[in-house]
Write a structure and sequence with these properties.
CATH class: Alpha Beta
Largest sheet: 6 strands, mixed
CATH architecture: 3-Layer(aba) Sandwich
Number of helices: 5
Number of strands: 9
Bound molecules: 1-O-pyrophosphono-5-O-phosphono-alpha-D-ribofuranose
Strand content: 25-35%
Mean pLDDT: 90
Order of helices and strands: HEHEHEEEHEEEEH
Structural class: alpha/beta
Shape: globular
Strand order of the largest sheet: 4-3-2-5-6-7
Number of domains: 1
CATH topology: Rossmann fold
Length: 192
Amino acid sequence: MTRTQWRNEIEKVLISESEIARRVTELALEIEKEYSGRDLVVVALLNGTVLFLADLIRQLSLPLRLDFIGVSSYGAGTESGNLVFTKELRLDVKGRDVLLVDDILDTGRTLTRVKAKLKKLKPRRIKICVLLDKPSRREESVTPDYVGFTIPNEFVVGYGLDFAERYRNLPYIGVLRQHNKPAPKKKKSARK
Ligand code: PRP
């Protein structure tokens, strides 16, 4: 898809490529300071995190380990928020510092579930890093330790975030035009 086509579907750029790059560098510096000398395991939540994760970890000069948890809020068409784990963690995190990385913190259901699941594996500590935080949508009490950007309740796509699995490869965070947005009460509108 060309950038011209995107312009027809994206109402506005909420966070530009350069703003993302700058902020990711700042986050990486903070994280590096915190985990210097620690046994860090970065656990990223699939799928939306991939772009953010790739940009973030290549700026971390730390001997980290990387693993993924696949989790998706299936139960589409409802707001039940049923989570399905599509990939389990493989690395041993016992006694280690875990940094959970996700693209967006919305209701907080996903990170609450994932954190509870990880806790059972007895890591030394779990911290949370999200690119985007939408506090106005919170239903579960989750406090992220690192936040790229706090955003209003807009339906955002790009830089990993999708609508119906599209737009993940947009290099910026954009707001979808009205006619492309999901109908009310569908799962995706509830989330982003
Ligand atoms: C998105 C996003 C977060 C979650 C946030 O995942 O990546 O993991 O929703 O929402 P919550 O705070 O309300 O739980 P999604 O299930 O859409 O999967 P994806 O990453 O593959 O897009």
